[in-house]
Amino acid sequence: MAFDYSLDFQNLDLRKHPELYRVGKGEQGVLLVEPYKSEILPYWRFKTPDVARESSQKIYELFLAYLEQDDFAGADMARKFLQMGYTRARRYANHKSGRKYKNNPQKASSREEQIQARKDILPYQVDPLKAESAAIFKEKWIQAKTNDKYLQLLAKHKQMYEQE
Predict the structure, then answer these.
(1) Residue 155 neighbours by CB distance under 10 Å
(2) Burial of 72 (C-beta count, 10 Å sphere; 0-12/13-18/19+)
(3) Where are the residues of the annotated region Disordered (predicted)?
(4) Under the phi-then-psi rule, with left for phi > 0, alpha for psi from -120 to 50, and beta for the rest, what region is 2?
(5) From residue 47, how far is each of 7, 93, 130, 132 by CA, in Å?
(6) What average pLDDT score do residues 115-132 get?
(7) Cα dist. 37→14, 42, 81 in Å?
(8) 86, exposed or middle or buried, with CB in 10 Å at 0-12, 13-18, 19+?
(9) H-assigned helices in the chain
(10) How far apart (Å, rounded) are the C-alpha atoms in residues 135 and 141?
């Protein structure tokens, strides 16, 4: 099932209501779902490889702690933060400003303008430090998403709560 953006995330504790948590695609909801966002976000950094190493290790430790508590939503949120560490560091590795497009496709007023905006990609300016930071996060993200207990809890969560 798709991630449910209609929930009142500011007032909803998904640790108490795991039945409302939806995995969605990729990083959906990573900056919404509480209390996990507040628990993980303070550690999320990727400015240098040393910072990325420390950050990804701490987030991976949180991931393992959530698994230890059979807290799937928490583990999945930690996995999403690791994935976002990879994708954002990779974006900055490729584009110094962190922006991929000259104009934001999401702010286009028509479908045609959106398509055109996605064609106007800013030039690559590879930053090897950010690329290394991305690789560090990617390694932890892969470890998380292939973790046996995580995969078991994912299957159980989908079976219990995400059947349509």
Answers:
(1) 11
(2) buried
(3) 93-114
(4) beta
(5) 32, 10, 7, 10
(6) 76
(7) 11, 9, 9
(8) buried
(9) 36-40, 49-68, 72-94, 111-119, 128-145, 148-161
(10) 10
Query: Distance (Å, rounded) from C-alpha 109 to C-alpha 145?
Result: 37
CA distances from residue 160 to 16, 21, 156, 164 in whole angstroms, order as listed: 16, 11, 6, 11
Confidence of residue 122 (pLDDT cuts 50, 70, 90): low
Looking at residues 40-63, what average pLDDT do you find? Answer: 97
Cα–Cα distance, 31 to 27 (Å, whole number): 9
**Apex 140 CA angle, 139 and 142, nearest 5:** 65
**122 Rama sector, left if φ>0, alpha if ψ -120 to 50, beta otherwise:** beta
Cβ–Cβ < 8 Å for 92, 130: yes
Residue 102 and residue 134: Cα distance in Å, rounded?
A: 23
Buried b / exposed e over 109-119, threshold 16 CB at 10 Å, is eeeeeeeebee
Average pLDDT over residues 96-108: 67
- Residue 70 near residue 54, CB atoms below 8 Å: no
Alpha carbon distance 74, 58 (integer Å): 14
DSSP single-letter state for residue 101 = B
